[in-house]
Backbone:
């Protein structure tokens, strides 16, 4: 049996999700999983450089430090699995995005987490830098996970929408008719703004179970102003991140509405996530939505999504055989497999690239 490791850290910048998996056709076998949280100091430094508050020396040091932590996460999941490192074909590492600018004169996307360090410390071939080839072909470089969604979650019986609730939310609409294109793009913030405001106002990195947001109420005027951001009306293909949706963005919005209690801002940010997703949802009468990502652990967010989605059913990807927390790291294990097989890893209809491309840079063991 051939095993693969997937490593993922998203825009929430809270830590690394690691899985050790094997693939059997369209089935995924998760043999072990691990989450390694970032130390507070490292997380603060990563957040700072994501807002251009860092020198080249700082970025270089963080590249090595995060690479070391990614390697530690891989070693932990190997130990937990009982597999020998020699049984693992490769590691697929997304890395930590610190800046994503897919538009403009010279588009780029920067993920740190030095893959050479991962390969050296684990002794396992490591594939990284999945975004750059798609961007070189004119694509957004993101989202990339829709290709995995299509490969493993498609159905010829129903249209499906996979909703990823990470720091940023993205959707993958997969028609039952395989001749129709898959639609996928970032809808905007999911947890990123709620986490940033919670940290700023309470000192806590996130709002556990949405309890703080539940103490507030939606401010409709503030929500309307937030939804007027030009990103939401922009047509796909599109992708975004902390470069646009960050604490400064929240503060700018709040300054126009003085005296709003902090808990009302938090509740309104949760509703912004819901509204921006629903307003951009493709029309699909027979659709069923399956959610994944950290936002599925926020009962208030899921309750509000379920309410506005009705009568369209909302489930989580557990019903499709994969725990919501592990969908993205499993996707990068699969993307590593695609790379070594010489098979494309992008969906041009999603990213806007000129065509299918083999993704990733290979760091041999």
Residues:
């Amino acid at each position: 049996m051939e095993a693969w490791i997937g490593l993922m850290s998203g825009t929430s910048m809270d830590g690394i999700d690691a899985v050790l998996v094997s693939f059997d056709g369209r089935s995924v076998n998760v043999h072990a999983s691990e989450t390694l949280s970032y130390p507070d100091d490292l997380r603060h430094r990563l957040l700072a450089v994501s807002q251009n508050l860092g020198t080249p020396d700082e970025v270089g040091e963080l590249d090595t430090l995060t690479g070391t932590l990614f390697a530690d996460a891989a070693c932990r999941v190997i130990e937990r699995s009982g597999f020998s490192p020699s049984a693992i074909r490769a590691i697929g590492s997304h890395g930590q995005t610190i800046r994503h600018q897919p538009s403009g004169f010279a588009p780029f996307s920067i993920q740190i987490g030095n893959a050479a360090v991962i390969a050296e410390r684990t002794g396992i071939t490591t594939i990284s830098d999945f975004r750059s080839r798609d961007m070189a072909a004119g694509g957004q470089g993101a989202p990339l996970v829709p290709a995995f969604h299509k490969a493993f979650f498609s159905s010829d019986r129903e249209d499906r929408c996979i909703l990823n609730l990470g720091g940023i939310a993205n959707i993958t609409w997969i028609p039952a008719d395989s001749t129709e294109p898959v639609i996928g793009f970032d809808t905007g913030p999911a947890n990123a703004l709620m986490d940033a405001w919670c940290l700023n106002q309470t000192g806590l990195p996130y709002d556990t179970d949405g309890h703080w947001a539940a103490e507030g109420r939606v401010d409709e005027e503030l929500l309307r102003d937030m939804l007027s951001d030009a990103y939401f009306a922009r047509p796909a293909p599109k992708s975004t991140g902390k470069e646009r949706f960050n604490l400064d963005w929240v503060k700018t919005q709040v300054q126009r509405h003085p005296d709003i209690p902090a808990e009302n801002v938090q509740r309104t940010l949760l509703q912004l996530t819901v509204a921006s997703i629903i307003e951009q949802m493709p029309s699909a009468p027979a659709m069923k939505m399956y959610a994944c990502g950290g936002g599925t652990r926020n009962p208030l967010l899921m309750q509000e999504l379920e309410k506005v989605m009705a009568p369209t059913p909302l489930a989580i990807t557990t019903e499709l055989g994969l725990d919501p927390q592990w969908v993205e790291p499993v996707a990068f294990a699969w993307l590593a497999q695609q790379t070594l097989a010489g098979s494309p890893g992008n969906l041009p209809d999603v990213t806007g690239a000129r065509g299918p491309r083999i993704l990733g840079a290979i760091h041999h063991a």
